What does this fold into?
Amino acid sequence: MPARLFSFIGGETGLWRVTEMEVIVGKPLPTVVGLEIASGSEIPSDPHASWVLRGITSNERYADREERRQIVAELLDLGRPEATCAALIPIRKNEAWWELTQEERLSIFKEQSHHTKIGLEHFPTLARRLHHCRDLSENEPFDFITWFEYAPSDEVRFNGLLAALRAIPEWQYVEREVDIRLERDQV
Amino acid sequence: MPARLFSFIGGETGLWRVTEMEVIVGKPLPTVVGLEIASGSEIPSDPHASWVLRGITSNERYADREERRQIVAELLDLGRPEATCAALIPIRKNEAWWELTQEERLSIFKEQSHHTKIGLEHFPTLARRLHHCRDLSENEPFDFITWFEYAPSDEVRFNGLLAALRAIPEWQYVEREVDIRLERDQV
It folds into this structure.
């Protein structure tokens, strides 16, 4: 069974070098220069770790059958040699979002915001992994963590996707978001 | 903030005495005679504990706005003095369920199975708490744990509700279910 639980460890070292940490909304995260990613329930002990964000992959909650077919068909693997750029984007949504019913959330996600459609239009072949945090424990600082990997030549296109998503109604429910950019050496 | 994480500790002792453990489908749980419930992330160390099932309360994923209004209006508190009977029912759904999209699950839950409606019709004032396990870690034995409390005089009605739920299409996706009944002294 593939690992579902991932820890993102921000500190002084790591495979990934942090190139920028931008607070989009809400409280910042302490600045770090390196990031390590661990899978499973063991977290490597980095004495210089400044923070650890954890999330678990889960069942999809909004995509319909046709969208899932498209997503699965077009999603690229993580770890491609040319994808030396990455983004780690932890997000927390506000209480108003979580007090909506699932149908209301689905309506905002889909009919009002076209979240999946925007992703497919702007960057159909983006390599990403979505992690849920909210149900992992009582005190996780974020609700979702998304990890993206892309080639340096795709950075402009990736920024365009984020700008489009941040403009949709769904994003009005985001009360904390940090946009962390990273790079690694080509392997 | 109210506690969201709960541990159900089966062993030789506990506030609740186990009166029956019935395997509805799938693998049994080891037999115990007592049950303790702990909230938060601390688990009391019971050297005689046979198993610990953990789950976390979460946002509702299927009820619509009107159903939620009815549920919230009619749900009774846990811990009422007259409610000296309880049921602990851990459930695991199969891979086919989790491979459905959220819309497909909602359709089975609602249009095909009327899960919430059956609950409201059979036992509108039932005290219960639903816990999610699946996203707590990678290796939880169940997906959901529901805890019910009721007065001895309501046992027949409660059994009727369970029989109705086990007959709906949604229950065809249940691959493991244990029905644990308990009682405690009146306080």
